[in-house]
Amino acid sequence: MRTHDGRILGNLGLWDQHLAIKWVHDNIEAFGGDRHLVTLFGQSAGAASVSLQALYPGNRGLFKRVIAESGTALAYWSVNTEQDTDIQKFISMIGCDGNAINVYSCLRALPAKQLQISKTSNDVTKILHPVVDGDFLADAPHNIVFGNDSKSSESRDFFASLDNMTGVNSYEAASYIFGVWSNILDITDFNNFSLSRETFTKTAVTYALQNLFGIKNNATVDVLRKLLSFAYIDSEHNGDLEVNTKALIDFTNDFTFFYPAILS
């Protein structure tokens, strides 16, 4: 996260990780390790983190391999690429006035519990993600890996120099039924949860296309949701509520974890 005025810088969590990696590199031999064979491993958000570390050329020489399980820097949720990353709303929500003379003192004085936000506050939590700051991240991860801009060439070269392994799990997105889709689909009874094809197509798929992929043209959304409904739900079983629920899990798996892993 960061503020437009630069008072609060972005990617502080990634900078902390970088310092931890440097400490390991400098001290691992005292524990019987080899500083030239350090491997970073992360799962879910941790997987995105180690992938982002692999895009920061300041880590050159500090590790050799990266294992990212169920997440990569190329996942849509790993980085906030939007220009509007001001955290005024967050600062106000947790009780600090963004216009205060020393907002830093206010934030530092708060207990950790008060700094936490509910997962339902999607409009706020998104701005707490890593950002393209031109420092730690020279550009959006996708542009670094697949682009040819000179400003990100050093990051791209460093990424290419590393050994990378990426993994996913078949039902990784099952937890999203509870953590994400419960609010969007208004799920209250998880013990008896089932999904109709209409809800999958008109609500879940439409939400993903418009809010996660940023497709705003209604005609395009209409065509894509029909194609996705056909692709994920067997026409012979389209009345089976369990099949429809599995379709939601598979659909979420693919765009959240599988596709980014394949890109990586």
TrEMBL record:
Stretches assigned to the Carboxylesterase type B domain: 2-262
Record keywords: Hydrolase
Question: Nuclease: is it a keyword of this entry?
Answer: no
Instruction: Name the Enzyme Commission number(s) assigned to this protein.
Output: 3.1.1.-
Short name of one Pfam family: COesterase
Gene Ontology molecular function: hydrolase activity
Q: What class of enzyme is it?
A: hydrolase
The record's listing under PANTHER family reads:
NEUROLIGIN
Family note:
Belongs to the type-B carboxylesterase/lipase family.
Q: What is this protein's name?
A: Carboxylic ester hydrolase
* Source organism of this protein record: Dreissena polymorpha (Zebra mussel)
Starting at the broadest rank, the lineage of the source organism is:
Eukaryota, Metazoa, Spiralia, Lophotrochozoa, Mollusca
